[in-house]
Amino acid sequence: MEIAGTPVTVESVREVGSDTVALELETPDEFDALPGQFVLLRAAPNGDDEDDVLERHYTLSSPSVEETFELTVGVDPEGDLSPWLADLEGGETVHIDGPYGTITYERDQDVVAVAGGPGVGPAVSIAEAAHEAGHDAVVLYQDDEPAHRERLEALEADGATVRVVDGDADDELAAAIERHHETGQLYAFGFEGFVTFVADAIEDAGGDPDEALIENFG
């Protein structure tokens, strides 16, 4: 069976949090993606019939794509694709289309990256890209079981402001947004309820949510 998209090799899979893995993929020729963009990944974990091909969108979680690039995958134990991806050992092939998306970071300014749940992947990548380019970065992250702790700790050690709040700590997140929303270009990544909350918090703080770059995961 021929699967649509560009074939790429899975270099490695590692656990980066509770039910969360980072999938490192070989960068194909002429693949030029920026932090904030996403790809469509296709695979056939259960067979070789066209009906067995599954596809999902995943946002990049690496600050660059020179030789490899990373996708952060939340693993649903009852899911049909993510558990299969989490069990890969490296050397397998998946297929991608993209990159897609107009929410990008050009390494040209200070950033405030606000993340809910799986939004931590692109938020961390944007913060790392900012620091690599000599800019300041703030990461505000809401999750009961945070992922990418090592990268967040490394960012903080390198001078970034990192604030992690519990899933029910909306007041704490709103206060952090009020404090930091004007300190750099604000990005927000997460599901609809989360990014709606972020937009409302920006407005309540006297800012303009239309100036934020917000990616709604649905």
Features:
single chain, alpha/beta, Elongation Factor Tu (Ef-tu), domain 3, Rossmann fold, six-stranded antiparallel sheet, five-stranded parallel sheet, 33% strand, Oxidoreductase, MRET
Task: Explain this structure.
The protein is built from five helices and eleven strands. The protein has helices spanning 82-86, 120-132, 149-157, 170-180, 192-204, and strands at residues 6-17, 20-26, 38-43, 54-59, 68-74, 93-100, 111-116, 137-142, 161-165, 185-190, 213-216. The protein is globular. It has two domains: 6-100, Beta Barrel (Elongation Factor Tu (Ef-tu), domain 3); 111-216, Nucleotide-binding domain of ferredoxin-NADP reductase (FNR) module (Rossmann fold, 3-Layer(aba) Sandwich), CATH 3.40.50.80. Helix 4 (170-180) crosses helix 5 (192-204). The chain has a six-stranded antiparallel beta sheet with strand order 4-3-6-1-2-5. It has a five-stranded parallel beta sheet with strand order 9-8-7-10-11, sandwiched between helices. The chain has 218 residues and is an alpha/beta fold.
Give the gist of this structure.
The protein is of the alpha/beta class and 218 residues long. The chain has helices spanning 82-86, 120-132, 149-157, 170-180, 192-204; strands spanning 6-17, 20-26, 38-43, 54-59, 68-74, 93-100, 111-116, 137-142, 161-165, 185-190, 213-216.
> Can you summarize the main beta sheet?
6 strands, antiparallel
**Intertermini distance:** 31 Å
Q: What is the number of strand segments? A: 11
Broad shape: globular
How are the strands of the largest sheet arranged?
A: 4-3-6-1-2-5
Order of helices and strands: EEEEEHEEHEHEHEHE
The share of residues in helices is 10-25%
Which architecture name of the largest domain does CATH use?
A: 3-Layer(aba) Sandwich
Mean pLDDT: 96
User: Into how many domains do the coordinates divide?
Assistant: 2
CATH C-level label of the largest domain = Alpha Beta
CATH superfamily of the largest domain: Nucleotide-binding domain of ferredoxin-NADP reductase (FNR) module
CATH topology-level name of the largest domain: Rossmann fold
Total helices: the number is: 5
Uncertain runs: none
Q: Tell me the Rg in angstroms.
A: 17 Å
Strand fraction:
25-35%
Q: Give me the secondary-structure category.
A: alpha/beta
InterPro entries: Cbr1-like_FAD-bd_dom, FAD-bd_FR_type, FNR_nucleotide-bd, MRET, Riboflavin_synthase-like_b-brl
Domain FAD-binding FR-type: 3-106
GO molecular function: oxidoreductase activity
Pfam family, one: FAD_binding_6
